[in-house]
Amino acid sequence: QEKLEESGGGSVQAGESLTLSCSAPERTFRRGIMGWFRQAPGKEREFVAAIRWSGGYQHYSDSVKGRFTISGDNAGYMAYLQMNHLKPEDTAVYYCAADLTSFYIEVADTAYDLWGRGTQVTVSS
Fold first, then answer.
1. What is the rounded CA–CA span in Å between residue 12 and residue 85?
2. For residues 41 and 26, what is the distance between their CA atoms, to the nearest angstrom?
3. Which end of the chain is more exposed for a tag (fewer CB within 10 A), N or C?
4. All residues at 6 or more sequence positions from 6 whose CB lies less than 8 Å from its CB, including other chains
């Protein structure tokens, strides 16, 4: 019944930045792990980044490490993905997700319980 909602997607030129936001009811992200995934047309959904609110542990995929930053508000209502130095290969629909049961950060999308509908990010050369 709980659901997430992404916003902030758009079309940018390579090298520019975007910040995605994800809202959740109550304090969803305080329950465990919040993650960002992305999916390009014809490809599988892939892990981008995740944060465990308790302790603030973070993990990033190699493809975005050093360029993207995940964060959230202290109350657990909002999560963010700051994307810098965007590349055309970053073009995808970006999803936020919440893992309510895992202790360690999981990169498999099957570990996550709640999902948003996605927001499109398009990066042009």
1. 11
2. 32
3. N
4. 20, 21, 22, 94, 95, 96, 116, 117, 118, 119
Amino acid 123 reads V
Q: How far apart, in Å, do the first and last CA atoms of the chain sit?
A: 40
**Which phi and psi angles does 93 have, rounded to 5°?**
-85, 125
Number of residues assigned to the chain: 125
Q: Rounded to the nearest 10 degrees, how much is the dihedral formed by the CA atoms of 119, 110, 4, 21?
A: -50
d(CA 23, CA 7): 9
HSE (side-chain half, CA atoms, 13 Å) at 89: 4
